[in-house]
Specification:
By secondary structure, this protein is mainly alpha-helical. It has seven helices and two strands. It is globular.
């Protein structure tokens, strides 16, 4: 995937292209990290590249279930809060490989749903303190734009955290993942000691 979303011809291709670009940002941020590095925190928050990947996996899955259930309410898991809380921890048994596999799976499902679900279907507003009380339902379209917003916000967090780990910036990481040639303005990131 290049540094920019592909050209778009309609709303669905725009949603698909920009969601895919933001999904890809987390793979860039994680590129070349060890499991231990994926759990490093560089601020006073609990955020780490690994926990952000786990968090956006849970968030993407939650919004995907809501969109698929439209116009009804999705089934709510009894342990929803513990699922959210565990996504913000990087435990000793966590692995970046497993986190990325779960993330890739839900990302593919989201992109498939963007292509197939009715964008106008009503998605009931969840009952939580941070959601408005004066809106009964959003559309599936709103869900995808909201997910795009969430991914972009957290991709920025992941970029900052990753840069604090080893100085690698998002464009260098993308260039490294895609094996771009060195230029005067971008040097692809490579692990220390790599040619």
């Amino acid at each position: 995937m290049s540094a920019h979303a592909p050209a778009v011809v309609d709303e669905r291709s725009a949603l698909h292209g920009f969601l895919r670009q933001q999904q890809n940002a987390f793979r860039n941020a994680a590129f070349g990290l060890s499991d231990e590095q994926a759990g490093l925190r560089s601020t006073s928050s609990e955020l780490a590249v690994g926990t952000l990947i786990k968090h956006v996996t849970v968030g993407s899955r939650t919004w995907l279930l809501a969109a698929r259930a439209a116009p009804g309410r999705p089934a709510r898991a009894a342990d929803a809060m513990s699922m959210w809380a565990s996504a913000l921890r990087w435990d000793e048994e966590d692995s970046l490989t497993a986190a990325l596999e779960a993330y890739d799976e839900v990302c593919a499902q989201v992109l498939d749903a963007v292509a197939t679900l009715d964008l106008d279907a009503a998605v009931p507003v969840p009952d939580a303190p941070w959601f408005p009380k004066d809106v009964e339902a959003w559309s599936v379209r709103w869900v995808w734009f909201h997910l795009l917003e969430e991914l972009a916000r957290h991709a920025g967090h992941a970029d900052i955290i990753r840069e604090s780990i080893d100085g690698a910036t998002s464009i260098e990481l993308l260039a490294g993942r895609e094996d771009w040639a060195d230029t005067s303005f971008v040097k692809p990131w490579r692990p220390v000691g790599a040619a």
